[in-house]
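Hey, resending since the last one bounced:
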Amino acid sequence: MAANTPRRASDIRLYLLGAILVLWCCGIALRLIYLQIFRYGSFEQRAQHQQQRTVEVSARRGIIYDRAGRELAMSIAVDSAFAVPTEIPDLPNTISLISRITNSDPRELLAHCKGKSFCWVARRADAETADRIRSLNLRGIYFQKESKRFYPKGELAAQIIGYVGTDDEGLSGIEREYDEQLNGRPGEMVISVDARRKWFGSVEKQPEPGQNVVLTIDQQIQFIAERELQTAMDETHAESGTVVVENPRTGEILALANRPTFNPNLTRDITPQKLKNHAVSDVYEPGSTFKVVTISAALDENLTRPEEKFDCQMGSIVVFGRRIHDWHPFGVLSVSDVLAHSSDVGAIKIALRLGDERMYKYIRAFGFGQQTGIELPAETRGLAKPLNRWSKVSIGAIAMGQEIGVSPLQLASMVSSIANDGVVVGSRIVAATTEPQATPQRIGFHAVNERRAISPMTAALMRQMMQGVVLHGTGRKAILEGYSSAGKTGTAQKIDPATHTYSRTKYIASFAGFAPVNNPAIVCVVILDSPIGGHHGGEVGAPVFHRIAQQVLEYLHAPHDAELPPNRQLLLASRQREKEEDVAEGSPDRLGEPIDVADSSTANTLAAQSKPPATAPVPAATGVVMPAALRQAEPAPVADSPQTGANLPPATPTDHSPVTGTVILDIEQGGIVVPSFVGKSVRAAIEAAEEAGLDLDAIGSGLGKDQSPPPGARVPSGSKVTVRFGR
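The structure tokens again:
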């Protein structure tokens, strides 16, 4: 019995140990079940967080095209460098080396990377920067392809297009206004680490590219406007300048130029002054250009006629106790001459007859005090005081363009309504948005948001009177060659911020006009802020209009409605031959080429042709074609109004067959030596012939193949030289 007692105690200990082992195993099993089943998701997330990181891959932004489908903004694939701090043995030194290359703050970049498993160190770097970083062969630094915004035309239309930030978000212009459509949907890239701590990436979700945006502007017209505006800025040293070119029938903006400007590819050089789009954001007193509103309102209300005479009182008038002086002591002027010579006293007398309420009605009808609706950010409404805030002298001040603030775009819209038979059309700069895969095509444009401001009769009379401004008024420097033109000059005093009175040294010079008069193809508004030296609109603004309108109308192949000088007729005939040859051979129109191809020859030639000769001939006035329903109601012709001129006769068909005969010329001793035209283009040959004093007979198109008389022959001045051109 005593012997069984130790054995029983031993069994108890064994059973107890077994029970403990079983409980221990059950505990472990329960713990494993808890970890593997109930906490599986949590631990998996922790593991993925340690081994993987999901990085957003930006989508390719949509392309911005001009009206002809030429790219103004696109996205290109570039390298972005990122760091894996856990793999970098000396993080501060590595960050310092990269910062020297990227010109970034090393302390800020180091703080951004500390304690992280992933950080960007050079987003969307250019090729040179990426190559320099790659050449360092730094441990823990890797590269990933991303899309970067690129503007192939540089500064061209910079304020219209805008620019984007580091993360491809639109910050100004169309890039900002259409950011949601252009952005697309980003994708995802998963970066993983293997057992050897090597990192690699794979794209889990492909990004979806954004929509494309087609603008109404024309790259070539935009280039012409910006070049001529820059020329005016260099000549006048103005603080800023704006040019708006618009289609008066549809409201499309064909060009919108601003100075100063910026290159959207160089974001670090952008300043608020350069970024500002003066055409839509600036508010200024329009000065005498607003007399168009005053006189058209009085004509529309049948309160006056173009031939009615007003005593301008030798340049002085008192309006409710306030004496207002004219810029020149005019005597008796007709309404037409009040506009042509820009008489303040005459405009005030017309406005007093019109009255406050009717004047305000037409201010609103022309769209002042409200946005035009253009698809650009930060458009101003202007400053048009409500009628209950007018003082007794407001009618006199507003009549000559004071006490009211307008934007250049609003002024262009007003002039367009005169050119468009009195109908105001909403301005726009976006033609359409298209899907990423869509091929850009030419889009038909139609007017939107139309409303009538004045009657067709009043608009016709105003076109006639505004043509008088150019022919015998303050806008003589806006006369074109081969085209009739009309417009109005403006010279507005700026407010001196120190004294809050009108400055005697700071002015805003402007010219707003259209051409041709009978069938307007374009409206062009030129604004120069604070030009030095000459500051009158007719002195500094009208020449810019002349240069831009001359080139744009030729580029658009607008039919001539006034006689050309003889030398321009020859050049026009040669161009017509070239065009016919190109059409016959199926060649594309050279004027539609990208600007980096065409501007070196075509644009420079156009610029040379646009400069008026020393004694530029004044084109005969074309008169204004009245609407058919109103022709019987036309007033009697004004004595000093322009008369109808002759139209240019159609060109005689030209024989394009090769030269088979010999041109016999009388050769005088000591005559002109015939230059070689072989290898020259038609335009270059014509220019060389004109310079030599010879008459060139160009046959065919392309480059010069042979000529008669041959190079080196002596011929009398003015002799004809026949040159055959071919491909």
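The longest helix spans residues 4-38.

Sorry for the duplicate.
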